[in-house]
Amino acid sequence: MNQKPSYFLGIETSGPVGTVALIRAEEGGSLTLLGRRESAVRNAHGEALLPLVDAVLQEAGIPLRALSAIGVGVGPGSFTGIRVALGTAIGLRLATGVPLVAVDAFDALEEAAGAPSSGVVITVIDALRGEVFVRIRDGNQTFKEPSTATAAAIDAQFADHSVAAIIGPPSESLTTQASLRAADEPDAVAVARVAARRSPTDEPEPLYVRPPDISVAKPKKQN
What we know:
alpha/beta; Nucleotidyltransferase, domain 5; 5-stranded mixed β-sheet; 5 helices; about 25% helix; globular
């Protein structure tokens, strides 16, 4: 008996372009993209996200409750965007019972780039302020947990190492011997593809890496 296909929705709003994508997983592991929508409104993804979800599902003729899981991008990236994605995904889970799968931006970029499963892989994301978010793994083991650094510091650290791939936005400072280009920002297509291979996440948490840049004014002293 042929197994029915499974459907996975991806939601990714940690960058300036919010994306939603739907894929179909067939028996045997093949994945087919059924639809993708985007909204290029920085820090206002909340207004457009649910209409994007609705449009992608209607275009494919797949009801929300028929999904096997919803993959949600948890960052790092825009604090507002990450909160919007998580809030929307959790709301959809509460309404339908569809499980969620947390997918960080490093895994999404590696998926999009076709990162090798062995060797040192350096994945970077623009963190502004002259820095990048970086995660470094060696095979399936995380060599360096997600953190912030300058591209020059990463280059200096690995100048004498054998590096299998550098993934993320281009940088003149990252001049080690290997490179593998990916999109500058994670995309919902990659989030959905990663979610199709993972078990549900009980309580997805944001991956901020660094605290938000918010200054709180101190109250003035009363005379």
